[in-house]
Amino acid sequence: MADGKIFAGHAVRRLRRTTGLTQQAMAEALDISASYLNLIERNQRPLTAALMLRLGDRFDLDPRMLTADEPGGGADAMRRRLADPLFADLGIDRAELAEWLAAAPGGAEAFARAFDRLRDAGAGLAEEENGALAAVRRETERWRNHYPDLDAAAEALADELRLGAGDLYGAIVDRLRVKHQLAIRILPVDAMPDRLRRLDLHARQVQLSEMLDPASRTFQAAFQLAQLEARAEIEALVAGAAFGDRVAERLFRRTVTSYFAAALMMPYGRFLRACEATGYDLELLQRRFGAGFEMVAHRLTTLQRVGARGLPFFMIRIDRAGQASKRYAGASASPLVTAPGRCPLWNVHHAFDRPGEIVRQLVALEDGGRWFTLARTVRSQVRSPQGIRAEFAIGIGVAAEHAAAAVHARGVDLAGAAVPVGMGCRRCTRLDCPQRAEPPIGRALLLNDRERGLTPFMFAGD
Predict the structure, then answer these.
(1) How far apart are CA 223 and CA 197, in angstroms?
(2) What is the structure's pLDDT at 1?
(3) What b-and-e string marks burial along 279-304, b requiring 16 or more CB atoms within 10 Å of the CB?
(4) Is 429:400 a contact under the CB 8 Å cutoff?
(5) Which of 122, 137, 114 has its CA nearest to residue 338?
(6) What are the distances in angstroms from CA 302 to CA 43, 225, 296?
(7) Pairing state of beta strands 359-364 and 419-420?
């Protein structure tokens, strides 16, 4: 089980300033020395579990707030922004970045917002087109795709449903019928050709398409139950996001409702224990919880409960054109998820050549990070009236240093040779990549009629 140290100097400093305390006064309240508190505020010492409990007890602070609002998404996210070629000549190292985040968290957050806005504009994405999606993605990453209140509520409801029936789908159907006077009705595709789920309040029915497999049928029923029984927790999250945009609110509401439905199917405690007992075996987890591959992959990114953390996985879903329709970094802070582009050498693209098969790969990034990744294709169960059936590749991964606990990593030398990948050609500065499609941003092209390198785009190095 992976459990990283918590550095939250900016949050502790903000708390001290809002309460009007000096470092000496706050240190006395926490039973520590002023010099130790100073190190914590400068992110040179992590918060211990005992100290987090004292902060909660003596300052009425929710411990989740220590990690839920890091400026710019935290040090890893800020490093990814500063890796842009625009800042290549500045030489900002980790120590300098840590000092910046500790000393001026507001300024760091302002920089992050401005950089993200300009980056989106530079990518040719109009604000009215990507505003809602970008806002929801930022809110999801702010929570690191882990909502403790939803997990707790879903776990309690799952335990209650288990008392009545061993079959979760049957228990949900009974709950909807008895408590909410809603019946589940499976409709033929001819009657519902372009919908998977529909709520007919006049008929008091939740109508599901016959095309849904058992896992998806359970998920859709759980989604409906979440709308009815987790309304308070869901609306609290939506209100806390303060989007100021109805589309973003509705999209985020759907996102967290789906989270609750998945948590109901895969309750946190039981799911984490199964992960550790099976070595995060994706196929076994699918069967044990009656879930689909994509559902399990997504759930792996959420295992961040304080005191009961799982491996910090990320997840991404792409189509054959490389377009990402789902991206969850979770606690991994992996640039493979947040980067605007993807490398064709990463085998998440190759999964389309081996449909239904899990392919694995050890990759190395330009910043020295090493990641163990898995990829597999999934297909939509339904097709459009024109006969089109969607197909995606699901990529998940974990830092190589944590991957030894995963059964899929057996036989892989996690310290051995790794495939060098980048963040898309426009962000990658590797000089010797034969797969390069275009030069990186901010690097001058070098043209020589007497020579031909591995790539037609030779450019100035560091």
Answers:
(1) 10
(2) 42
(3) ebbbebbbebbbbbbbbbbbbbbbbb
(4) no
(5) 137
(6) 25, 21, 10
(7) parallel
Euclidean distance between CA atoms 47 and 30, whole angstroms: 12
At residue 63, the pLDDT reads 60
For residue 50, name the pLDDT band (cuts at 50, 70, 90).
Answer: confident
Q: Which fold has domain 8-65?
A: 434 Repressor (Amino-terminal Domain) (1.10.260)
pLDDT tens-digit profile of 109-163?
Answer: 888 888 877 765 554 443 344 588 889 998 999 899 999 999 999 999 999 998 8
Measuring CA to CA, which residue among 322, 329, 326 is closest to residue 346?
Answer: 322
Which CATH number is 131-265's, of 1.10.10.2910, 3.40.50.1980, 2.60.40.10, 2.60.120.10? 1.10.10.2910
**399 with 369: CB under 8 angstroms?**
yes
Domain 310-427 fold is Beta-Lactamase (3.30.450)
